[in-house]
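One-letter codes give the sequence; backbone shape is given numerically. An example follows:

. . .
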Amino acid sequence: MSEIKTLCPYINGQYVESKTEKYTDAYNPSTGEVTAKVPCCTKEEVEAAVQAAKAAFPGWAATPVLKRVQILYRVRELILEHMDELTYLVAEENGKCWKEAEGDVLKAKEGTEQAISAPSLLQGESLMDASRGYDSVLYREPLGVFAGIVPFNFPSMIPMGWMTPMCIVCGNTIVIKAATFTPRTALRFAELYKEAGLPDGVINIVTCSRHEAEILLKHPDIRGVSFVGSTSVGLHIYSTAAAEGKRVQALCEAKNHALVLNDAHLERTAAGIINSAYGCAGERCMALPVVVVQEGIADRLVAAIKRLAEGLQVGPAYDKESRLGPVVNAAHKQSILDWIQKGLDEGAELVLDGRNVVVPGYENGFYLGPTILDHVKPGMTVGDREIFGPVLCIKRVKTFEEGLAVMNANPFANGSVIFTQSGYYAREFARHTDGGMVGVNVGIPVPVGMFPFSGHKLSFIGDLHCLGKDGFRFYTETKVVTSHWFDEEEGKSTNVSTWDGTI
């Protein structure tokens, strides 16, 4: 049994022993062993993190963007230098298989690289003679302290790819509320940022309950909140923080659908679905938990998916031969089991049952095998609500139009996918799907970091998405300076227009 560590919040560039009496167990999902005691930070500790970020802001904001970028260049190199260490850490605390965990870290690198584009993307706009003799210049400026509220499923990518790099390169500081189940990766990243030369207080990390996190939503020194998690919590965060005058981006739940037409390449489509549905044990908002398939190909497709799913090697995350790792903890495993049973109670057909999988030598791990529910009908909640596990639902339709309608009836619209060889239907799908990120023969249509992660409907609440140009806009506010210089004659005049150059 590995050593159980008692974690500490990271405030003003150092670990601070928490004064809390409440700790939560964090597990190694592969073994079921407790690996860390995670503090529920006190209100005073959350406040201290905010104050550290506030104190660091003036100096950091005044640091030229080229110098801020130089630190991120060093962070990028440190990520590469510590790739195996960070990958193992993600695998150990989250349960992702090795390549999935490595991808989680690489996405942090990608977000860092996008932030390094700041000298160009922070450039403003100007117009000489906006009005005769009057020039206008638009600048982008940092706002102050931001809060990042992080889920358990991507302990590297979300806090250290989506949030931190872009936030701080714009000149802001940040307080991250790390996920209680998976905080160690973010804490290790904070150490690497300090090694890269980041001033103390620019990044601060706490772990706490929703009660203490509420401070971040109402605190007068917090200017904006970036959140990833459930829709119910996202709605609360948006309504609460926005009412306090803060800007908010809330990336929420999903129930992504794929439409498979009769002309799709069967084997490659099935392989793409396997990768999308069961990668990261289904614990990602861009998973593919629902396949809508035309009846003409449905039986053959389901058979192909089942055959490939049965071949997935379920095992510990850090075993490089594993293709399906555990889910994050016992409570989440039970939630998924309850969803499978609910699907059966609602009338779905169990094609593949992953509930009783056992991994020899890892009997206490939180494992579920790939599960397939066929003949999922409209109105069955198992086909409409996020399960967040390795469960694939099959919905059968007669036509493209029926399939598109079934997909668009869902209240979530993070991503949507079509598998077809028809350019016409691919174009029609891209034009009319509600999904914000669309794949044509691409099972996980997550764009690279220069584009925004752009969910729609109840999958996103706010105006500006993370990453891409949206990210830079979210973390900055604009200032427009209009200037006018007098010649000798005008300098002696006392006749000034009511509109003074604005018309």
About this structure: The mean pLDDT is 97.
